[in-house]
Amino acid sequence: MELDPLLLSRLQFAFVVSFHAIFPVFTIGLASYIAVLHGLFYKTANPAWDRLAVFWTRVFAVAFGMGVVSGIVMSFQFGTNWSNFSQASANFLGPMLSYEVVTAFFLEAAFLGVLLFGRGKVPQGVHLFAAIMVAIGTFISSFWILSANSWMQTPAGVELVNGSFRVVAWGEAIFNPSFGWRFAHMVMASFITGGFVVAGVSAWYLLIRRDVEANRKALSMCLWLLLVLTPTQAVVGDFHGLNTLEHQPVKVAAMEGNWETRSHVPLLLFAWPDQEAQANRFEIGIPSLASVILKHDPAGVVPGISEASPEEQPPVWIVFWAFRVMVGLGFLMIGVAIAGLWLRRRGRVYEHRSFLQLLRVMSVTPFIAVLAGWIVTEAGRAPWLVYGRYTHAEGLTPSLTGGMALFTLIGYVTVYAVVFWAGVYYLTKVVRNGMLPEEERDSVAGEVERPKRPLSAAHTPFDDTDPARS
Question: Which end of the chain, N or C, is more open, meaning fewer C-beta atoms within 10 Å of its C-beta?
Fold first, then answer.
């Protein structure tokens, strides 16, 4: 059987990007949270904020390191697997990636050193400033990367001359038509991811009664954040979808499983897309709701997948189901945030064991939702590397063979499995030892010790329940 270098190269890049994406989406939100914690400690001198800041900085350092290691590999792949695309897009993507390194990566790296090793060695205000700079650096980094990715989705400000993209308007290229909504959607996803992870870990600490005062504060902050951001993310996602409908209608048609251009399009809850038959084998949907969502009119006409020729259609089955995973988890997150408000009103949010256990489970759902969203974004663009302008096949390295692509794919999977295992092992160790006095940390292994302090704690600015109810 002949190995297809194009398919294997796409699988390899998808694997590396998916592995890498889970770290920035966490660290962007976590960096801002750490800066807030340092600010609260600077203002109030409450040691609970300091304990939280120290603990989550340790977690951030591990996740940031894993993100850097996995991200460097992506640039290698542009040269090894996609050399034609590297040449074609160099006039735009080359400077964009350079700007990210110069303006963001160096900023993060320099001030991260102060944040990690400067505690007690530099003035507290300088330490706070370092935390803020690290947080700003993560935003700058995401700005350049998402601008570059958005340009591949909605190219603007360039012209294709002799197989190479030439920039004719830098402002239009950087602030391309989909960038604004895509950037907002991704940044909010980062805050939601960080919020659920912090909430999940804080819930676990409350279950085992470890540093109750600090973790009640952390959980309360996160639940308020999630209560605001999860429904707001749904609104931002809707606007992002409308933008995608304008510029990438076939992608939206694949997300909806809509094969023919028509009105009164149902919102499909379940379907089995059959790309060969250009139809769905089985459908369960809500009549006209997709037209209402996309056109704000039950009779609104929604483009169909058949608007594109079969060779220019994305893999519908993957896009269709990845979109439903993302949206389904999004509504689940909204429900959990509302449940947190309901329990807070009854003074039970910190003692309701089932809810705390649910938060532990929910800490992984944002990562799954983000990966599903990236699958929709990237698979929905296929077969284009630059939408409507440049295909995957055109961008492939001419000399690349299927055997070479398979070898590197296996190598990446193997190495990343080791990196992931090591990272998870160390993160687990950090969490197990976290929020304990320093002299007790080394004694925690395997089963977690339960401090003897009660579950209730003193009333705090982020704890609006009556302490007498605990």
Answer: N
Torsion of CA 454, 459, 464, 468, to 10 degrees: 60
Q: Which pLDDT does position 67 carry in this prediction?
A: 87
Cis previous bond, 461, omega within 30: no
Q: What is the reported pLDDT for 460? A: 42
Tell me the whole-structure pTM to 2 decimals.
0.90
3-state secondary structure (DSSP) of residue 248 = coil
Cα gap 355→339, rounded to integer Å? 8
C-alpha dihedral (183, 10, 411, 25), degrees to nearest 10? 10
Residues of the chain with pLDDT under 70: 1, 436-470
The Cα–Cα gap between 366 and 329 comes to: 8
pLDDT at residue number 110: 87
Alpha-carbon torsion (166, 171, 177, 183), positive or negative:
positive
CA 322 from centre of chain: 14
Strand-pair category, 158-161 with 164-167? antiparallel
In total, the chain counts a number of residues equal to: 470
Contact of 390 with 384, CB cutoff 8 Å: yes
User: What is the rounded average pLDDT for all residues in the chain?
Assistant: 90
**153 Cβ contact list (under 8 Å, min separation 6):** 176, 178, 182, 247, 248, 377, 381, 387
**Nearest alpha-carbon partner for 409 in 2, 1, 3, 58:** 3
What is each CA distance from 362 to 355, 369, 424, 427, in whole angstroms?
Answer: 10, 11, 17, 18
Q: If we measure between CA atoms, which residue out of 2, 7, 4, 56 comes closest to residue 29?
A: 56
Q: Any bridge partners for residue 160, and if so which?
A: 165
